[in-house]
Amino acid sequence: PADSNDVVAEAARYLVGVGRADCTGPVAQVPLMGYANPDQVGGGLLSRLYSRAFIVADPEDSKRVVFVSADIGMVSQRVRLEVLKQLQSKYGELYRHDNVILSGTHTHSGPGGYFQYTLFWITSKGLVKPALGSIVNGIVKSIDIAHENMKRGRLFINRGTVENSQINRSPFSYLENPESERKRYSSNTDKEMVVLKMVDEDGHELGLISWFAVHPVSMNNSNHLVNSDNVGYASYLFEQEKNKGMLPGEGSFVAAFASSNLGDVSPNTRGPFCANTGESCDNPQSSCPVGGAAMCMAKGPGNDMFESTRIIGQNIYLKAKELYEKASQEVTGPLSSAHQWVNMSNVSVELNATHTVKTCKPALGHSFAAGTIDGVGAFNFTQGSVEGDPFWDQIRDQLLGEPSNETKACHKPKPILFSTGEMTWPHPWHPDIVDVQIAAIGSLAILAVPGEFTTMSGRRLREAVKSEFDSHGTRGMNVVIAGLCNVYTHYITTYEEYQVQRYEAASTIYGPHTLSAYIQLYRGLAKAIALNATQDLSRGPEPPLFNVTSVTLLPSLSAEKAPAGKTFGDVLEEARPEYREGEVVEVTFVGANPRTSAENATEHNFLMVERYSNISISWRAVLNDASWDTRFYWSKGSRGQSNVTIEWHIPAGTEPGVYRLRYFGHYKKQVSLFRTITVPFEGSSSAFQITAP
Predict the structure, then answer these.
(1) What pLDDT score was predicted for residue 381?
(2) Do 181 and 35 share a structural domain?
(3) Which end of the chain is more exposed for a tag (fewer CB within 10 A), N or C?
(4) The model scores a pTM over 0.90
């Protein structure tokens, strides 16, 4: 009989490693990335942001694939280039631009300011080094942890339908697609979730990746607390379930809920209503009789955005859990990866034997400024706020520049608002050089796409790639789209959707044939993988890394003061002596700018909920600031003073007993005319009782 070890070795086909690291960055004063609303500036923390890394390697040779899903709006070219630079200096040629996929979950409640292209500076207050640094370092650290924890393991795939969690937010655009095509699908959104389960050779659980198409915009643009939105809440529930007894963000099991073709998909399932009159505004213009489009906002299933986030997040989590537990189809086969850089402003696409079309220099259409039912456009910085600063005046003058006739003709019927491809000061406004990339793990092909494909665009892309694999003898591939990878290029609609120029079409920056170009390019990558010829793919033109000095409008961190007779961390408003579950404990402290803590330490925990243990006669931490039940608010006062309010929303099932809240911060202290130092401090509420319900 065969040696029993051989059977196990046969069973464990890959080396697998998982890792998770904090990438939150500054939670105050930095504009949040996603709604392009300059007034939506960070003012505290609801949940931490994490980078989650998964490495699959072939035990026999050096082939590897890395997939990272980070709780950020999108991966920028700047982030990717800096991550790859660090990986190269640590690991040489092991982790490269072809076998490392970096994907953003697309939360709209994370700090911005990590972009090198000028357009994204406008609503992010420039390039914010601490935000960029936290993201880059968090991603690299998550890969380091995965790399150090590689063990023999097995992968299983499963798929299923998620209900009651999405609507199409541009249904009138979707209806422009051919009826014969629409008839093949039961819904105007992709309801399918794909789950990849990872276990070690002894069957111990390591982690999972879920791909599902939904916008993480359950938290709307009135929110100022940094958080990972609905998909982040799903990750939190799964990890809390598997890492029993650990504080949030700790424990070895890693659950990533990654983005997919979510371009026209909203989690705000009750649909669009006029904020002023309450009537439906589900019309082609998403407009209200009084107040126009600015009044039209979609509602989630909950009573407020916090509850909606939890409802959608829990739906997604429960489906993933079910698919994970039942996953039995094993993923086997070789590892490969294919990557090219492409100048997307100049791709020739052969539509058929007689007809060739081209992509365009990037440009944004008028509806870009209108925004969507998930967040009204706020790109009104062309008047007012920035005048008087010569740098931002020059920025504005470019925005008002007239597009060339060539660009106008290329983008037809898009009425051009910003001809970003023709704006170059102080750096180009939009990328020309874009990554296209596929990583294959046996029968699973992950298409890393640089933006937001709409539902139908994603279906066309997956189908084209699948048929390409089929035609070269690689049958039965599971083709999955990973969204918001590598570089951000806004939206990709179908040619038909493009014709009606709603927000997603106005934001399809390379013109009407963008999707056709991507389909042609990804087919080429799939063919190279199927024929084992990835080494013959042309690398393409390398993207630029601009020498960006820290251009930022963030207020500088100056010396801070406590009110007369008080010191940092003193309690200003104390907890009540007694609470029951369902109530909110609220304590206000003499605070300091949380940015000071972020600049001082990469991972800083701002708060603890502690319970008194009679057995050990000591306080034990039960929650930290990564918990979704706590909220950390910072409010700036005058003359260098500020307050911090910590809330604990006591969940059902909380053990009765004696508790307290603690706050940890840093303040800037003036030590001489030109020098400040950073001083750590802490504060604590008095003890309070939680009584049985």
Answers:
(1) 37
(2) yes
(3) N
(4) yes
